């Protein structure tokens, strides 16, 4: 209630029409909010109080329907922050948003284009942003630091974030057209994964047998689970009798944030060191795509390795062991975990892989290269590409194009088999000869 005793009008009702000195009636209303949270106030006018009130109702209806255009376009960085903080969480996974935010923080936030208003943003601005981003990565060496150009795939990832965020701005009436749609970005890269040969894989499998975590690497090289899928695997997902592994989740981590006002209270630089930190730690989620929910067969070598791994794991459990409880309060007896039962950090898993391949005496590579190797091996064994897609959890047939050289070899083998199959058998000469020919062979032709 107001001090006058009259009920206070809410923000979505606008102000009561008032007559100005000129005789025109005027009302104010809130048309929307900028990404910064600032309200955008507008006015309507009428020759009479009734006309002004009618225009007010129309304006408020348009604003509530999202058709009203803000009087001041937000700056690029304001909109990107608003998109990542408010809009994206409705349909994008938290870890994906975190990856998007990292790209924005590293390549957009400190750039001069970040302060440009959306309605002034041009394709040339975006071209300049990408050009500067390509040379923005620093690499430290003993001789000093030097610029290390970003890969085309990283620039493509940044482009996808901008394009999507600006598309949303267009759909919500904040921007007239999306300048990112006029910018062409190639995602092609000269990077080639390290695919291990059959001989190298055999050496790696032989080395894995003697390691406590050897089953982790046998799983990587034979079935090619994604890192998060392997680290999220529970013993209840493994059916030794049926010889199958069910893949239904993955474990991932998010960085901690300050629980205080960005370190103003705790004085710590990083959110992970804040006593009141929030939002970080380990989480579980569905696999990367719908095709990631799958059941895969277990080869005999992996069955033995997993059973032995289970025995060693039970012996190594610490006194404080407890099942991992995820954000949904679900308990998981993880196959690959720390002695206390909690998930392994992906960086620790990465280092363990590096130590493993060094001990096996094979070329250096990434954890994900084990997945590439598994895919290549399955295809070389002649397994139907559609089955390989199911085992690897690929959702798009286009993934097979990365292994075109293997598919070409398979096609050549098919051609050889078809040629052999349809080539007529050679006609054998008959052993039966005429009586005259027999006499000639015995007595000569008589000449």
Describe the protein's architecture and organization.
The chain has 14 helices and 12 strands. The chain has 447 residues and is an alpha+beta fold. It has 3 domains: 11-64, no CATH class; 76-182, Tyrosine recombinase, N-terminal domain (DNA polymerase, domain 1, Orthogonal Bundle); 208-249 and 286-409, Intergrase catalytic core (hpI Integrase, Chain A, Orthogonal Bundle), CATH 1.10.443. The strands form 5 sheets. A 3-stranded antiparallel beta sheet has the order 1-2-3. The chain has a 3-stranded antiparallel beta sheet with strand order 6-7-10, with no helix packed on it. The protein has a two-stranded antiparallel sheet with strand order 4-5. Strand 1 (18-19) and strand 2 (25-33) form a beta hairpin. The longest helix is centred in the middle third of the chain and has 20 residues, at 152-171. It is extended. The N and C termini lie far apart (140 Å).
List the helices and strands and how they pair.
Layout: E1 18-19, E2 25-33, E3 39-46, H1 49-64, H2 76-87, H3 94-107, H4 123-134, E4 138-141, E5 144-147, H5 152-171, H6 198-208, H7 214-223, H8 227-231, E6 238-239, E7 244-247, E8 250-254, E9 281-285, E10 294-297, H9 300-316, E11 324-325, E12 331-332, H10 346-360, H11 367-380, H12 385-392, H13 404-422, H14 435-443
Antiparallel strand pairs: 1-2, 2-3, 4-5, 6-7, 7-10, 8-9, 11-12
Helix pairs in contact: 2-3, 2-5, 6-7, 6-10, 7-9, 7-11
């Amino acid at each position: 209630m107001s001090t006058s005793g009259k009920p206070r009008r809410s923000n979505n009702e606008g102000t009561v029409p008032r007559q100005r000195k000129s005789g025109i009636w005027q009302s104010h209303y809130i048309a929307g909010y900028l990404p910064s949270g600032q309200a955008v106030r507008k006015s309507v006018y009428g020759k009479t109080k009734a006309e002004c009130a009618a225009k007010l109702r129309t304006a408020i209806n348009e604003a509530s329907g999202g058709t009203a255009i803000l009087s001041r376009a937000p700056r690029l960085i304001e909109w990107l922050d608003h998109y990542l903080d408010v809009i994206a969480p409705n349909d994008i996974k938290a870890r994906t948003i975190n990856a998007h935010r990292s790209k924005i923080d590293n390549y957009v936030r400190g750039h001069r284009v970040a302060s440009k208003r959306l309605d002034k943003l041009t394709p040339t601005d975006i071209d300049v942003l990408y050009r500067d981003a390509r040379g923005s990565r620093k690499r430290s060496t003993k001789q000093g630091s030097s610029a290390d150009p970003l890969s085309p795939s990283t620039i493509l990832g940044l482009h996808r974030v901008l394009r999507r965020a600006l598309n949303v701005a267009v759909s919500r009436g904040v921007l007239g057209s999306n300048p990112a749609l006029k910018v062409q970005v190639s995602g092609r890269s000269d990077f080639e994964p390290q695919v291990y040969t059959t001989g190298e894989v055999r050496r790696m499998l032989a080395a894995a047998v003697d390691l406590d975590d050897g089953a982790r690497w046998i799983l990587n090289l034979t079935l090619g689970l994604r890192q998060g899928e392997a680290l999220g695997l529970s013993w209840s997902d493994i059916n030794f009798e049926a010889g199958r592994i069910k893949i239904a989740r993955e474990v991932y981590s998010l960085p901690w944030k300050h629980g205080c006002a960005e370190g103003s209270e705790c004085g710590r630089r990083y959110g992970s060191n804040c006593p009141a930190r929030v939002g970080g730690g380990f989480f579980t989620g569905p696999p990367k795509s719908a095709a990631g929910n799958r059941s895969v067969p277990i080869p005999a070598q992996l069955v033995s390795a997993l059973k032995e791994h289970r025995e060693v794991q039970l012996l190594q459990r610490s006194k404080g062991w407890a099942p991992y409880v995820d954000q949904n309060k679900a308990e998981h007896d993880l196959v690959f975990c720390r002695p206390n039962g909690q998930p392994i950090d992906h960086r620790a898993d990465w280092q363990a892989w590096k130590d493993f391949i060094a001990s096996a005496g094979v070329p250096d590579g990434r954890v994900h290269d084990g997945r590439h190797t598994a895919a290549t091996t399955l295809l070389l064994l002649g397994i139907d590409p559609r089955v390989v897609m199911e085992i690897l959890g690929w959702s798009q047939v286009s993934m097979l194009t990365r292994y075109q050289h293997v598919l070409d070899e398979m096609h050549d083998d098919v051609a050889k088999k078809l040629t052999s199959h349809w080539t007529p058998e050679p006609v054998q000469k008959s052993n039966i000869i005429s009586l005259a020919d027999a006499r000639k062979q015995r007595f000569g032709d008589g000449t």
